[in-house]
Design goal:
Blueprint lengths: L1 H14 L10 H26 L5 H13 L6 E6 L2 E8 H9 L5 E17 L5 E14 L5 E22 L2 E19 L2
Antiparallel strand pairs: 1-2, 3-4, 4-5, 5-6
Length: 191
Amino acid sequence: MKKIIATLVIALCVAGSAMAQDDLTPERKQAIDSLALEKVRDLSKYIKIVGSKETPFSEANRVIDRAEELFMSDAEIGVSSLGSNQITYYRVRKYFEHLMRLNYDRVEIEWYNIEYVSDLQRQPDGTYVGVITIFQTFRGYDAEGNLTYKDTTKKDITVYVKRKETQIGGRTIGFWDVLLGDMRVKETTNR
């Protein structure tokens, strides 16, 4: 609940007073960038929780519901491995269900170097689109605690920023909303 309130406060701060203002001022852009990076960090936490074999099934499902709220409805997440050149893309819920079923006794997933690689670009429909790059290290362990698989994957996450409206106290308030799009695998290595 705190996160929802904080997101709404940030969105309202970013909103400004007039819905007609579709351009991003430097201040709005900075607030939106912060919100987008916060959503990516939340996603990182959700992946870590669901990937942990110690997370109860009911908790994992609750976290998956929260993770889905971060994304556009048709977004997909790419999965790769060192043993194959193939990249498989899953819808968000299917990705998390796949993550829960991995055949390891313990899984560690760490994200680092989270940063924008492309600035937000305005599209003809008024939506802004950018890309955030992350590096993910995945480690899988057997029952004895031995590392049986490790890879590092570079992924690009598309970020969509759209104008929306909400009613607060009988007033229509315009705000910028940030949603994540596809998470594309760019490179998988054994580092």
